[in-house]
């Protein structure tokens, strides 16, 4: 019997863990599937498009051939003008004229493009050319951006919980260290003995009702009991909670014997998990300086790793690139030679965007508090002072 009950408890615990993790895994999995479907779609549409030479491309070739024929050995006088013409002509060239669409819109290239779309980064070096691709890009962003923000909000709750708990534990440890330094050994021992005596006096060995407790006390001590009613109420409630624990276990056994009730209970818990999305972010209260330090360390780690497979980037350029990416600015001035390697860094991008989002949220809260203080201060200054007239 004991083994079967342990098995049932183990199964129920595993089910609780599964249904607790299920909403988070569902969001992340849906985003991954959405990115892969978009990569297949854009690689098929933009990769298989026919290359059509436009009128601008033909004019570019004509001007280039004209400048090539005008070259001569004696270019000392017209060298500056010639360089300026070449520079102006190359500025009119488009990147798509010299790139094969199948090479640019491979599966990994399309997947990289989809990640830049729903993360709202948009570097600008990869963009759809066909009319169908442009329409599908708008439709893809219309559903992908809310899904991405949902994943960010959900992961933000987890990250906010971790940050708040670690920060609170750090504060508790700091207060304990300060208390141990300020408190001497003899005084602390006396305080602990007094606390233990006070607790031993207020222990209730048997579950009693309020009337039984009042009747058992002598008449001379009833005035003191009035001041201890709060402690008595708390102890009686604790006793009642201990007595009701076996009833909860019996109800769990009933749910295990009736699977329909168990399914209804688990479904209600899953729905509650969906309703709690974004609640932990509202409760988060850590110093903004700590978040700035976390962002600096987080970007520095990536800036040290990224130049290993991107030879055109050093530490400073990689730091700039990561900051522009995580803040979703995405100028596109720094291009990646191997974007498929950076796709394996996508988890880093999502977590980093979440850290930056939390920092912006904390900064927003601090600004609101600052504005309230400024407005209240200005209102107090403008309030007319009360004049006291003599009677």
Automatic annotation (TrEMBL):
Highest rank taxon of the organism: Eukaryota
UniProt topology in membrane: Multi-pass membrane protein
InterPro entries: 2pore_dom_K_chnl (IPR003280), K_chnl_dom (IPR013099)
Domain Potassium channel: 102-159, 294-364
GO CC terms: plasma membrane
GO molecular function, one term: outward rectifier potassium channel activity
Predominant location: membrane
SUPFAM superfamilies on file: Voltage-gated potassium channels (SSF81324)
Keywords associated with the record: Ion channel, Ion transport, Membrane, Potassium, Transmembrane, Transmembrane helix, Transport
One Pfam family in the UniProt entry: Ion_trans_2
Localization of this protein: Membrane
GO process terms (BP): stabilization of membrane potential
Membrane spanning stretches: 21-45, 105-123, 135-153, 286-306, 318-336, 342-363
Protein family: Belongs to the two pore domain potassium channel (TC 1.A.1.8) family.
Protein's name according to its UniProt entry: KCNKI protein
Gene source species: Oxyruncus cristatus
Chain's gene name: Kcnk18
């Amino acid at each position: 019997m004991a083994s079967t009950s342990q098995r049932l408890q183990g199964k129920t615990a595993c089910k609780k863990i599964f249904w607790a993790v299920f909403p988070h895994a569902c969001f992340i999995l849906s985003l991954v599937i959405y990115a892969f479907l978009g990569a297949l779609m854009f690689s098929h549409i933009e990769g298989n498009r026919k290359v059509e030479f436009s009128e601008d491309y033909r004019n570019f070739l004509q001007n280039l051939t004209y400048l090539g024929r005008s070259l001569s050995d004696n270019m000392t006088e017209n060298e500056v003008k010639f360089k300026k013409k070449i520079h102006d002509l190359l500025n009119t060239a488009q990147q798509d004229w010299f790139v094969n669409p199948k090479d640019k819109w491979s599966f990994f290239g399309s997947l990289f493009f989809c990640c830049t779309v729903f993360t709202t980064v948009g570097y600008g070096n990869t963009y759809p050319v066909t009319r169908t691709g442009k329409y599908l890009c708008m439709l893809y962003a219309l559903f992908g951006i809310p899904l991405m923000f949902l994943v960010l909000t959900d992961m933000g709750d987890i990250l906010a919980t971790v940050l708040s708990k670690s920060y609170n534990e750090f504060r508790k440890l700091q207060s304990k260290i300060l208390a141990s330094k300020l408190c001497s050994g003899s005084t602390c021992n006396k305080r602990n003995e007094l606390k233990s005596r006070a607790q031993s006096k207020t222990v209730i060995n048997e579950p009693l009702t309020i009337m039984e407790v009042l009747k058992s006390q002598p008449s001379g001590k009833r005035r003191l009991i009035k001041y201890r009613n709060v402690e008595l109420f708390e102890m009686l409630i604790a006793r009642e909670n201990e007595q009701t624990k076996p009833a909860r276990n019996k109800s769990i056994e009933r749910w295990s014997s009736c699977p329909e009730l168990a399914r209804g209970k688990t479904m209600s818990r899953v729905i509650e998990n969906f309703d709690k999305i974004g609640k932990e972010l509202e409760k988060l209260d850590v110093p903004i300086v700590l978040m700035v330090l976390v962002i600096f360390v987080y970007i520095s780690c990536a800036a040290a790793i990224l130049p290993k497979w991107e030879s055109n980037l050093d530490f400073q350029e990689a730091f700039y690139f990561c900051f522009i990416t995580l803040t979703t600015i995405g100028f596109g001035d720094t291009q990646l030679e191997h974007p498929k390697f950076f796709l394996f860094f996508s988890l880093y991008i999502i977590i980093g965007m979440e850290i930056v989002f939390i920092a912006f949220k904390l900064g927003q809260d601090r600004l609101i508090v600052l504005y309230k203080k400024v407005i209240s201060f200005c209102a107090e200054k403008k309030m007319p002072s009360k004049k006291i007239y003599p009677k």
